[in-house]
Amino acid sequence: MDVSTQQLHRVGTTVQDLAAQLRSALSGDRSGPGDPAWATDTTLAALSKEWDGYLSGLAGRLEAVGTGLLDAAAAYRSADEHATVRYGRRLC
To answer: Cα dihedral angle (17, 52, 58, 60), rounded to 10 degrees?
Structure first.
């Protein structure tokens, strides 16, 4: 099986970048008008907090997937280097 470590690395980096973009979006202002006459302000704040929690968890999962892909790329690269040293050539 031939694995492109460059592509694995590129995808891992892209997924980590997506996680960072998602985290940066969490800092946006989602508050209502702050008018006591608006009954939705309290509900909006609660839902916004839940949504931020969900997105934060999603960003964490994306970060973990990106790290896993980068680790896999490094492991494949290392295995190729060891095979080259041991057998004098890359096996795949």
So the answer is: 70
